[in-house]
Amino acid sequence: MIEDKILDTDVLIIGAGIAGISAACHLKKHRPNTTFAILEGREQIGGTWSLFRYPGIRSDSDMPSFAFGFKPWTDKKAIADAHVIHDYLQSTVHEYDIDQHIRFGYHVISASFSSAENLWTVTTEHGEQKTLVTFKARVLLSCTGYYDYNAGYTPTFEGMNNFKGLVVHPQHWPENLDYTGKRVVVIGSGATAVTLIPAMTGKAGHVTMLQRSPGYVVSLPSVDPISNMLNKLFGHERAYPIIRRKNIALSRGLYKACQKFPDLMRKILIADVRRRLPKDFDVDTHFSPRYNPWDERLCVVPDGDLFKAFSSGKASVETDRITRFTEKGILLESGKELEADIIVTATGLNMLAFGGIHFEVDGQTVQIPETTIYKSMMLSSLPNFAFAFGYTNIAWTLKVDLTWQYLCRLLDYMDQEGHRTFEPIIGDPTMIREPFVDLASGYVQRGLAQFPKAGTHEPWTFKHAYELDKERLCHNPIADHALHFTGS
Length: 488
Known about the structure:
Helix content is 30%, strand content 26%. By secondary structure, it is α/β, with parallel strands linked by helices. It has 2 domains: 3-149 and 350-486, FAD/NAD(P)-binding domain (3-Layer(bba) Sandwich); 154-225 and 265-347, 3-Layer(bba) Sandwich (FAD/NAD(P)-binding domain), CATH 3.50.50.60. Strands 1, 2, 3, 4, 5, 6, 19, 20 and 23 form a 9-stranded mixed sheet that branches. Strands 8-17-9-10-13 form a 5-stranded parallel sheet. The longest helix is centred in the middle third of the chain and has 25 residues, at 236-260. The two termini are 37 Å apart.
């Protein structure tokens, strides 16, 4: 590998997915004189929305909440397909003239901060030749998401090599896979599985959802008549803030009700499922989870499409454990064998903290799990660094927009005061540290050890609470006891 030239910029953004695009747009709008670049390891924008290609991939949040606060969502569908979301992101990039700032094919391998220079040095591998290219930046923003783009998670099932059919993971869906008339088994019951099953039933011979245990599934309308009426009456620009406030209030209300009244909400959610399925359908076995609502994320199905697939007989569900794969399919612990031509392992993601980047400060390696999250967007003892991690209990992007609003306020404050660096520093060494995500989902529990922790008191908490973050990121003063500034 040959080292190429060093490129300088004020702000360096890692990732051209929805978080990176949001960061760039906020800088363009609120800090027009700030120079920035976006490094994207792949050859296109969009992150999740251009990576995944499995049938039916769509949002699992309403789009007026999931879309950017600064650019109205104008499509009539509130639950949108991936290609529509990608078009929206592409339109945003063009509208804000972000294209010229994106450098494709740059995979970041390390980032080192120098207190002497007050600068980050970021080393990347570029292109197939993996040429080393180094960037220097005053501020580094991580918009890498939370999972490994290279490999999804598939458990080791006994006898997988014996199966004569095709095994597919949704993260690596084969182009032009023809499943017409095929018997398909989808292993899993999460957001990916409940999306795949109704999308495949139109062409597949039969689709079976094989789950170890049931989860909560909620039906929402794909088209919101109230939102569309408001758009028609007031136009998109004026109606959008109203629609967002409505949807945020409803989502937060549902979450809080599940937290406060879990037994009642459990009955309501299961009753809704029961009324959408045939009377002889075994809801108690297949759709009555053992945990409380929102201990794991609720799965959204637009217009009840999953339940329609089961009701039509084109899809079915099995709640059982896998003994082993066989030549013909899967043998269950009950002794039943599910015959299949294609098995889809919708078994989750591999979490990856900050894209696997190696961080250093003044030559010393930073152990990410030993750091603590400040205001849900910075890390203790990591100068001039911020990251985006969205909400798990409401639309992901709501948090991302708040993060970059705060960043622009922070940079304005630093300019006014003549500061060169910011750094969160823990003043109370006895503060208890805890996981920043409290979901019980398997992929979360597998990957949490590599991530930083949150603290038990402000400003170190990570609450996944939109109203809390809006107050502390958009309205509270920038300067506080935990954020230290240096340099002039």
